[in-house]
Design goal:
The complex is a heterotrimer of chains A (487), B (502) and C (505). Chain A has 487 residues and is an all-alpha fold. Chain A has one domain (7-485). Chain A has helices at residues 7-13, 15-33, 42-61, 80-100, 104-107, 110-128, 132-150, 157-188, 193-202, 207-225, 233-240, 243-268, 273-295, 301-321, 325-356, 367-370, 372-386, 392-406, 410-436, 450-468, 471-485; strands at 69-71, 76-78. Chain A has a two-stranded antiparallel sheet. In chain A, β1 and β2 form a beta hairpin. Chain A starts with 6 loop residues before the first helix and ends with a helix. Chain B has one domain. Helix content of chain B is 73%, strand content 3%. Chain B contains 20 helices and 2 strands. Chain B starts with a helix and ends with a helix. Chain B has 502 residues and is mostly helical. By secondary structure, chain C is mostly helical. Chain C has a two-stranded antiparallel ribbon with strand order 1-2. In chain C, α14 packs antiparallel against α19 (427-452) and α18 (410-422) runs parallel beside α20 (469-487). The longest helix of chain C has 35 residues, at 340-374. Classes of the chains: A mainly alpha (487), B mainly alpha (502), C mainly alpha (505). Chains A and B meet through α17, α18, α19 and α21 of A and β1, α5, α6 and α7 of B.
Amino acid sequence: MTTTVEIGPMLLAILPEIGLVLLAALILVLDLVTRARTNRNFLGWITATGLVVIGVLSAVFAQPGATPAVIWGGMLRLDNAGFLFSMLFISGAALTVLFAMESESIRERGEFYILLLVSTLGMCLMASATDLVMLYLAIETTSIPLYALAVFVTVDQKSVESGIKYLLFGAMSSAVMLFGFSFLYGFTGTTNISNIAQGLSSASIPLVAVLAVLALVLVGFAFKISAVPFHFWAPDVYEGSPTPVAGFLSTASKAAGFAVLLRVMFVAFPGYSSIWTIIVAIMATASMFVGNLLALTQKNLKRLLAYSSIAQAGYILIGVAADTQFGASGAVYYLMAYLVTNLAAFGIVTVVGRVIGSDEISAYAGLNRRSPGLALALLAALLSLGGIQPFAGFFGKLLVFGAAIQQGMLWLALVGILNSIIGLYYYLTVLKVVYTYRSEEEARPMLSVPGWKVALVLCLVGIVTLGVVMAPFYNLSTAAATAFGVY
Amino acid sequence: MLPFLSLIIFIPMAAGIIILLLPAERREWIRRTALAAVVLDLLLSAWVYATYNIAAGGYQFLEQLPWVPALGISYHVGVDGISTPLVLMAGVVVFCGVLISWNVQERPREFFAFLMFLASSVFGVFSSLDLFMLFFFFELAVFPKYLMIVMYGWPKTREYGGMKLTLYLFIGSVVALIGALAIYFGSGKYTFDLLELAKAGFNVEFQKLWFPFVFLGFAILGGIFPFHSWAPDGHVAAPTAISMLLAGVEMKVGAFAALRVGIELLPEGARSWAWLILILATINIVYGAFIAMIQSDFKYVIGFSSVSHMGLVLLGFATLNEKGLLGSGMQMFSHGVMTACFFAVVGMVYDRAHTREITKLGCFFKKMPWAAVGFIVAGLVSMGMPGFSGFNAEFPIFMGAWQATPKLPDLLGGGQISGAVVAIIAIMGVVITAAYILLVARRVFFGDLPQEYSEVSDVTVFDKLAIGLLSAIMIGLGWLPGMMAPMVQSGVKSILAILGGA
Amino acid sequence: MDFITTHLLSLILFLPTLAALILLFLPGKRVKLLRGFALGASLITFLLTLAIWAQFQSGTPGFQFVEQAPWYTALSSSYHLGIDGISLTMILLTTLLTPLALLASFSVTERVKPYLFLFLLLETGLLGVFMALDLLVFFVFWEVGLIPMYFLIAQWGSANRNYASLKFILFTMAGSLGLLLAIQMIGVVTGTYDLVQLFKIWPNLEAAKSLFGLPVESVKAIAFWAFVIAFAIKVPVWPFHTWLPDAHTEAPTAGSMILAGVMLKLGAYGFLRLVLPLFPAQSHAYAGWLAALGALAIIMGALSAFGQTDFKRLVAYSSINHMGFVVLGIAAAAWAAGTQDATLALNGAVLQMFNHGLSAAGMFFLVGVIYDRTHTRNLNDFGGFYAVMPIYGSVLIFTAMGSLGLPGLGGFVSEFLVVRGAWPVFTAATALSMIGLFFTGAYMLKALKQVLHGPVNEKWRHHLSEINVRELFVISPLMVLMLVIGFWPASLLEVINRAITMFKF
């Protein structure tokens, strides 16, 4: 189970985290030094490049071995799950940086990149954490920069409002979660999650108590993944915060929440799986319905994407509720697909929002004539969310529904497909506006910065690749899923 | 050996991608790329048809590549006696569709690109020997269909028709997906390969439970009552070439998938539910014909008549015997060609007259004789007139109906439906079809020419080529059923082996 | 050469179609070329038929000039052709009337190409029915003939053509529906559609075999009625006749010639070829009803004809009247199968089919001749034509007498044979038919009087041209044949009689 590792390899194991810290420091220095300069686009490019370098180096040097290793005194675990998710976060951050370069109010402010990097650092730690204290630290490290990022465009009242909401909600749910953690420590006398599992099973703790603890803990996780009934912050925060930030929130932050959810549920509460699977399944159902039904009525694309994100969380939760390796790998694959998809969607909203000045769906009229490529990109992103071939979302949905059926939870699969139908309806409605409605502005081209274009192309490549060449990514997901469950 | 099937599937896809990359103003390049792709596909599919070894039977032109080995998914293609004619039919209809659409003026780039993707999807489903791949290509068609209808369709109903069609089909396919996943997990073999799954031997209760999911899910795309209402609305809303593809080929995709996945993988389930399919199919035939008769819009008549004729295909499936399945196989081909011809002619009339109200039209034979003859030939096929392909398809279906002995479940008394009654009721659909086809043909193409259409132009050379090809096929197959029947028969034999053994 | 001699029937069958297809490529404006080509093709077909006639061995039992090739093997149906004396007679009639009808069609001036195209296709359809020795092939050709006729009536007919053509095709198709179902049933039960085999298998079907829970006898009864109704609509047997007056009246002249001359015989042929041999017991059981209906047709047809003011409609009803004799003859044969009476009656029936073909075609043609000149068919408008067109008048009288059944002309022989054969069998019906015969004379003479005699209607005086050479060419062969058969019936009867005596049912 645990292999004692020396300092050297342990440092190597947290190479991504170290890299992120160094990069953040670099950006801080550069930002201070070049404050006088007018054109500071290079900050974004440096951040993005730096993230890529970190990713590559980690892939080369910091890959987990055949057996997972617990490091840093049981705080972290070097395994395929943590590794994959870290790569995911780093990619997400890089893409967000590139997308953010489109936004004038953000791109020249070094703080943006620093906050993003620190948040990413927190996420990487979240994915690898095996200790409650570490977990809490990581969650806060992730969340606090995100609160600031949500508020980032201080001149925009909506941005400020969304940030405050996010902070309040987040703080409250964190507190509740911490309360739950404290009970866990109290019941079992340890903060290491695998030891907690042993502790819970050996000591005869009343079921009610465990359930209560479970509920408290889930509050925090549910907030992170914007699952019903802790989703209320999402629409307002997504709508108010700067669009690139919303993209990052909806993808990387959510993925981090899922990583934690999977690890804690599988490792700390295996004995109570019959109960928490039901709870998770109900959460999934509720999220799907609430997200999809409310999305039907939205006129603002950002809000629509927010509600759609809530629903998407529901789909991923199906994979979690299945409580199998297959289900977990489905959830992981879905998250990978969802990352590129949603980032692309929000990226497009960034450009259109800047050029047309509105995020209303009606502002997208005539987009096909104005910029066919952009329309196609939006098509790919929305249909991937809908779960249509040949885009990534389909395979993700296939896996999670399959996991539900394998476990005999046919009702959950049926709920899933019913919601897919509702989802397809509103995605197609947006596409209808894009492709068939006319606007007077059709002749004016859509201009975007190179960085943004690079990010969009990468996302699209990702969407199609994950939809067509599934095998290598599926194998990665399975490795991650195994790592979650094997102790 | 060339990978014929892969070429057939991917040439349109490649063409579609190339077309999307072309500048929007280069209309000629766009059209020619599309035409080149469909001509190639037509030739390749004709070659596959001609060189399929009927004596050897079974699946031929096999290709297999691993796709996601961890899940038992592979790219596995092959055609048997039933799918080979369908591949040919798709090749013909897509070719004619491009010819008919040659003069599309608005945004031809997206039009032809999406048309190519649709073609690719159709060929993919017909050739699939892997359940995942079948779904992959099946749903690949969703977005091209939707966009083509809302972008290029009839302004009055295209939003409604397009959304209805797409949602219905999506519903059908996800319902079938659930069934397919159940099959995957139930087989215990963890493979999506159809050939492997066919040997899996599911127990009877499992089959009885999951057959409706799979069969009805796919049959929705085939237009089964009562989930058929997307068809008339969707077909009418769509632009001509898409109507041709939708009614001519897509509906067969649904029926074919229902056969491949439903009947061939779950034969006992098929046997238990045959009574329901039989009843629904019969309703399709008669109800579709009745409703077609009372339509005032020319295109709606054809749309409902498609629902009626697909009922014949489903009837043949439900008989689960040699003649019925043979007839269904032939009917899928014949109806595909026929309805493509119908919609093509309707489109030609509408493009020039800008109306499809039967009462407003008249004497179009004078203005476009080729189109009129095409309509008449297609009409004779739809009436089941001997000497045309429709008769050679409908006759064995009825023979199969006579011999069918579907058992009612114990819940409903456990008796038997009399095939004779079914055959007699179904043949009424034929009479009604004859009546409305003759009436519509007479009103639109003969009679007096209304003043406003005196300057209407004739159809183009490409239009004539398309109609000529489709008519020649319908007549040729009518007089020479031996050109197709043996091939379909060989396919049917393998299905019977599955059914008999079960 | 060998190919031709061994595939003579196929050649005759498909030559008209081939000609039709070639016709499509000829220039549409060169009307003379088109007409000449079509006429020439149909004449070649006729000559080929004569060649068959010459080589036909009337003493040999079974079918001759048989051809068989795989066609729809999946359904055990093959392309099987063959003729015996009965079908040869009918084929001769068809290939004779077609060139005459085409010659008569020279007065059609608009859309000549489609007209001729459809006409040639029609000939193939009709010939196919007579030659078919496979039920499926029979049915295919049975239906195939309907469509060209529908279009001929609908496009080149008179004022009420839309209604008439639609009624014609829907009536006939409705009848065909039953036929189709019955054929399907036969195929399902026996596993083959080949007539030669069915003649052996079907009547001897074991009682043990049953279909959908019904005993064999019930299945046979259903099939019998389905066949009977389909053919009864075609013949037409009263009360299924209501489509005929409209169709015949509204059709163009040549169309009526073929419709009355050949198409009605399809129904009677169906009775002879299919109903009698396949269902001898049921035919015997219901022969009485058939005889009664035949008698009714004779009487009603005559009475209705008597009351007509439209010349063409009168001739149409006369068809019902004459076909009634055919039905009576068949009924007698069905009842008294195997006796000499049956043979006589059947001889009469077949000969009547031929004769009526000649006389009906002739009468319709002559009505058309007047119509071309006066553009009306109303008998009240006519009068005194004999004075203005004496040759036409003589011809009309001759043909009318042939239609009437005047001794010395063909009609008499066939009607006599039918009556002779039916009298011992169905005395009452035959007696009633005599009354009908009386009225036949009445209406025919009345018509002649109204057209030819009396004062000339002034408005026609300068519009009536004498019957021209072309028109004479059309009517002469018919007149000659009527005369020949009247004086020398053996010329045709020999072949028919031999066929009938060997006819097993």
